[in-house]
Automatic annotation (TrEMBL), chain A:
Keyword Transcription regulation among record annotations: no
Gene Ontology CC annotation, any one: nucleolus
Brix domain ranges (all copies): 37-286
Compartment(s): Nucleus, Nucleolus
Biological source species: Vitrella brassicaformis (strain CCMP3155)
Name of the protein in its database record: Ribosome production factor 2 homolog
An annotated GO BP: ribosomal large subunit assembly
Annotated GO MF terms: rRNA binding
Location of region: Disordered: 315-358
Family: Belongs to the RPF2 family.
Taxonomy, superkingdom: Eukaryota
This protein's UniProt keywords: Nucleus
Protein transport found in the keyword field: no
UniProtKB/TrEMBL annotation, chain B:
InterPro entries according to UniProt: Ribosom_reg (IPR007023)
UniProt GO BP: ribosome biogenesis
Coiled-coil features, chain-numbered ranges: 184-211
Stated name of the protein: Ribosome biogenesis regulatory protein
Native organism taxonomy: Eukaryota, Sar, Alveolata, Colpodellida, Vitrellaceae
Length: 358, 350
């Protein structure tokens, strides 16, 4: 513990020597409005051609807010030791890491992990099947999307709500593919859509149409794939029968319609693949709660005394103060001069609050 | 989608609605439309949940079959796009720009925790209890020597000019005539700077919840700066005597060694102005009105009469000689504050 205390002290007393350095250090401090997390893409100890191709595809998709480390990382097993992943994320200023690897037991794996406050928050190991790279003949001739354009994201299927693991997968994948945190969006610039569909077992892999089941790696159906890839993966989390998640990437074309809104046409531009959750590490509940806290500055301020009526009229209530009745001009009655105004008149005029429509 | 226009052109196909699916079939059933127009309203009911900050649409309805997945995806994409286009927009040079909502509905975790509020420095804490408010000081001040406005600090400032304007410093009585007064002043300034730096560092660490170790004797510097060597040794000895875990309780005493019992540390907490004033008033009230129980008025009277009598007997003994004036009992000597006078600054009278 003393080492960490020393680290805290040294980091506190660390002072930038230049203006630029100061700005860099300030940018590394916690911010109220955070940008999208940068993604770190890495290759594991062994990475087959398909793994490398997938990482390249994802790199293209996530550009420019990502770092691709092309060097192989020896002995990098995040489920056994997370420290090197945390270190590399810290060093490269990244919030999510993607590690692609090949092994005899786990032939085509992608580990997706998230970092919160310099340590791991949650992590999933995805087994990839039916991978079609974006260079596949099915996707030929499709105009690529612009670099760094924000994607639309669709998450489909009830299975995402069925289990905690699938909920994590939904959150993690949304976090991964959701790029940028713009305040404003150029509507004409929308050009691609990412779809994550949780396929139920009845119409997953085996029931896929021939166009989708033709893949680089001729993966067998999900059941035999599980048999081939060794025992049921229950080491870290115990995902029994994981629902396959289909990843698709579409180009969005807007066509004129009979209304003001455009008609949407989708053309698949690749890559596409199916993933099942293998090992996983869920977030600690307390840490999760602190991680999803919304800063006070982001929360909208409560507007008082303004309401909207049924007809959509905005109504504001204002306080006009107490009326000074002693200076009220009343008709002069010379006969009863000096007498106070009658009580009836007083109640007529006293209206401290009034409704005014704006 | 391209088949739609073909279908409407070909009269044979127009009346075979089985070949068309969904929306196109409905259109083909009725009167043929004048122009080929696509609808922006999908067949599907809008049962998605959205987070438009992330441009996210979530559909939890079951996926009917794999063949229908693509049409379902398109319909959902249409619904999502309709929502995005329904956001408040404004026109720019590049085109129509939508303003995205600032608050997310689907929470994604942050990368770093929410920034903490800056910890208050020792001075700020003290100033708050005392009600001291920072006032803005003007950046420039009038320089009497230069007869001009000059900066308060920094280059060509009032202080710098004053230093330049005093080339001679008188050696006062008891000062070392060989000492360089300018150098001495520079050294003092360095010391002040160093102390301030230490304070800043301490505030930073204390703000982060790190406790600094208590001060220890720096004998080397003490020896170098010593003026009264004996005092110095005795303070060092005192420090050493209490520098064990038991506060020196179980230590053997050397021959001739004296020990002073450790002083009880008085806890000084900064008082708010109102409390301070009240406590002073209470004391004064007690003194003048005799309301409190601490002063025994009878006893005080006895002491006064006793003193008076001894004085008189002394006067009787020394006949005709000049008698020194005795202390007037009960009188107020020196400066003092009356009741209800100006008691400190801060709160105004009600």
């Amino acid at each position: 513990m003393s080492a960490t205390k020393e680290a805290v002290v040294s980091s506190l007393l660390r002072k930038a020597k230049t203006r630029k350095g100061k700005r860099i250090l300030e940018a590394k401090e916690p911010q109220v409005h955070e940008d999208a997390k940068r993604v770190l893409l890495m290759k594991g100890n062994r990475a087959g051609l398909d793994v490398q191709q997938l990482l390249a595809d994802l790199h293209d998709l996530l550009k420019p807010e990502c770092v691709y480390l092309s060097r192989r990382h020896q002995g990098f097993h995040p489920f056994e030791d997370i420290s090197s992943a945390e270190y590399l994320c810290e060093k490269n200023d990244c919030g999510i890491f993607l590690l692609g690897s090949t092994s005899k037991k786990r032939p085509f794996r992608l580990v997706v992990g998230r970092i919160f406050d310099k340590t791991l928050l949650d992590m999933l190991e995805l087994s990839i099947q039916k991978y079609k790279p974006s260079s596949h003949k099915d996707f030929k001739g499709v105009e690529p999307c612009k670099l760094g354009s924000k994607p639309l994201i669709l998450v489909q299927g009830p299975a995402f709500e069925a289990s905690e693991t699938m909920g994590t997968a939904k959150n993690l994948l949304t976090d991964l593919f959701n790029r940028g945190r713009p305040k404003e969006l150029l509507l004409g610039g929308l050009d691609h859509l990412i779809v994550l569909s949780a396929l139920d077992h009845q119409h997953s892999s085996a029931a896929l149409p021939p166009s989708l089941s033709s893949s680089i790696e001729q993966a067998p159906d999900s059941l035999s794939a599980r048999l081939l890839s060794g025992p049921a993966p229950s080491s870290a989390g115990g995902a029994s029968r994981s629902t396959p998640i289909l990843f698709q990437h579409f180009r969005v074309n807007f066509k004129k319609s009979d209304s003001k809104l455009p008609h949407v046409e989708l053309v698949e531009m690749g890559p596409s693949f199916e993933m099942t959750i293998d090992r996983h590490q869920m977030a600690d509940k307390d840490r999760w709660r602190t991680a999803v806290k919304v800063p006070k500055e982001v929360k909208p301020k409560k507007v008082k005394n303004v309401s909207t009526s049924v007809l959509g009229e905005k109504r504001g209530r204002i306080h006009v103060g107490v009326q000074d009745l002693s200076r009220l001009h009343t008709p002069h009655h010379h006969g009863d001069a000096g007498k106070r105004p009658t009580k009836r008149r007083k109640t007529d005029t006293a209206e401290p609050e009034a409704d005014t429509a704006t | 989608m391209a088949s739609e226009s073909d279908a409407q052109n070909d009269p044979m196909q127009r009346f075979t609605p089985k070949r068309l699916m969904g929306r196109e079939a409905d259109k083909a059933d009725g009167q043929p439309p004048l122009r080929t127009s696509r609808s922006a309203v999908p067949e599907k009911a809008d049962n998605l949940s959205y987070d438009l900050q992330h441009l996210l649409g979530v559909d939890i309805t079951p996926i009917p079959s794999h063949d229908q997945l693509n049409s379902m995806t398109r319909d959902n994409a249409q619904l999502l796009v309709n929502r995005v286009f329904g956001l408040p927009t404004h026109m720019t040079d590049e085109g129509l720009v939508a303003t995205l909502p600032t608050r997310p509905t689907y929470l994604l975790p942050r990368r770093l925790p929410i920034p903490k509020q800056k910890a208050k420095t020792r001075w700020k804490k003290f100033a708050e209890t005392k009600g001291i408010v920072k006032r803005k000081r003007s950046r420039i001040v009038w320089d009497e020597v230069k007869q001009d406005w000059v900066p308060r600090w920094g280059y060509k400032s009032l202080k710098a000019n004053l230093d330049k304007a005093t080339p001679i410093v008188e050696v006062k009585h008891g000062q070392d005539p060989l000492e360089d007064p300018f150098q001495k002043r520079a050294e003092e300034r360095q010391l002040v700077k160093a102390k301030q730096k230490l304070r800043e560092m301490r505030n930073k660490l204390e703000g982060a919840g790190v406790r600094l170790p208590a001060g220890v004797a720096n004998l080397a510097s003490d020896v170098a700066n010593r003026k009264k060597p004996k005092d110095d040794i005795s303070t060092s000895l005192k420090r050493a005597q209490v520098s064990t875990a038991s506060y020196g309780l179980f230590d053997k005493t050397a021959r001739g060694e004296t020990r002073t019992p450790p002083k009880k540390r008085r806890k000084v907490t900064p008082q708010p102005v109102s409390d301070e004033k009240a406590s002073y008033q209470k004391t004064l009230h007690r003194l003048f009105k005799g309301g409190g129980g601490e002063i025994d008025r009878g006893k005080a009277g006895n002491i006064a009469t006793f003193e008076e009598e001894t004085e008189r007997s002394r006067r009787n003994k020394v006949k005709g000689g000049k008698v020194r004036k005795g202390k007037a009992v009960g009188g107020r000597g020196g400066k003092g504050k009356g009741i209800g006078g100006k008691g400190g600054k801060g709160k105004s009278k009600r």
